[in-house]
Each structure stands twice: as structure tokens, then as C-alpha cells.
């Protein structure tokens, strides 16, 4: 592991434990047993470190899910796959919370790069909904709101999911996919 990766891993660990605001560069350096000068050799400031962590995490963890989903021709299968895999990612990787909920701290230049990555998520979901609607499979009341509902449903699990019970992540992913496609009323009406 490179020194840069080591710094990022330790910083991510501390951001998760203490929060971004409560983790100065001096604490990261101390946890690494290094000087602050080493950190500043790799990153000009804490914001740049945060950007690097978020960008690398999205590339490593989210991009493969998006790539695989985009290759699925059927829009319903594509969207089900994405909702399940995205939920599983967030339910198994507590550190993804930093990626999602600290991105607002980035400077405008870095924020633009991360927003472009998030736009890929939005576009994948929105396009799948639009395709299903054009095929007559669904009637989306508002495609943009439906897209944000799918994203939000998955993205907020950090605040209530019990990470000590990771074995329930598969069940959570299935539940989210079923809720998004069937809703509670349809699930009730299908019961004999």
C-alpha cells in the first residue's frame, strides 16, 4: 500500500469515528505516527484529502456497479440490479457515508467532479424509469421525483441500518427493490 493510500485509509477511519469537522490533519498525522509535513506532501489541505477519498471510493466501488447496470438491456432488470447492488454497497461499507454526506464540503472545482459522478447515478435510474414508462410497464407520476426517491431510499440507510447485523443487507436490498417496483399497496393486493 502506498503512503497516499495509507493516509486516506486512516483519514477515512477517523472521519467515520470522529466526524470530518472533528478530525484535524494533526490527528491524522498522529494516528499514522507521522508528521503533518508528510500529509501536506501528498495533500495541500484537508479538503483535498477528502476529495481524493471520495473520488477514489466512487471510482473503486460505485463505478463498477454503474458499468454493469448500464450493460443490462432490460430497464427493469437494470434498475433492480442497481438498487440491490447500491443498497448492498451502502449496507456493507459504512465508510460510504463519508462519500455521500461530506461531499458538500468540497470546493467548487472538486464538487463539480463529484456531482458529475452522482449525475451518472441519476441518469441511469431516470433513463430506466423513462424506458419502462415508454414500454407501458409503469406510470411514473414524476420521473425526476421517482429517481430521487430511489436514490434517497438507498442513500439514507446510514442513519438507521444496524451494521452489526450485516447478514440482513441482502434482505434489505430485496425489500427496497420490491418497494420501489411494487409499492406497499400492490404488495398487499398480491397476497391471497
CATH class of the largest domain: Mainly Alpha
Distance between the termini: 56 Å
The pLDDT mean sits at 90
DSSP helix fraction: over 70%
Q: What is the makeup of the main sheet? A: none
Instruction: Give the class from helix and strand content and strand pairing.
Output: mainly alpha
Output the CATH topology of the largest domain: Tetracycline Repressor, domain 2
Task: Write down how many β-strands occur, each being a DSSP E stretch of 2 or more residues.
Answer: 0
Number of domains: 2
Rg calculated over all Cα atoms: 19 Å
Helix/strand order: HHHHHHHHH
| CATH homologous superfamily title of the largest domain | Tetracycline Repressor, domain 2
What ranges have pLDDT less than 50 throughout 5 or more consecutive residues? Answer: none
The CATH level-2 architecture of the largest domain is identified as Orthogonal Bundle
Strand content: under 5%
- The best one-word shape is elongated
Quickly count the helices. Answer: 9
Please summarize what this structure is:
The protein has 192 residues and is an all-alpha fold. The protein is built from 9 helices and no strands. The chain has helices spanning 3-18, 25-32, 36-42, 46-70, 75-92, 96-101, 108-134, 143-155, 169-190.
What does this structure look like?
The protein has 192 residues and is an all-alpha fold. The chain folds into 2 domains: 1-43, Arc Repressor Mutant, subunit A, CATH 1.10.10.60; 46-190, Tetracycline Repressor, domain 2 (Orthogonal Bundle), CATH 1.10.357.10. It is 74% helix and 0% strand. The protein has 9 helices and no strands. It has helices at residues 3-18, 25-32, 36-42, 46-70, 75-92, 96-101, 108-134, 143-155, 169-190. Helix 1 (3-18) packs across helix 2 (25-32), helix 4 (46-70) runs antiparallel to helix 5 (75-92) and helix 7 packs across helix 8 (143-155). The mean pLDDT is 90.
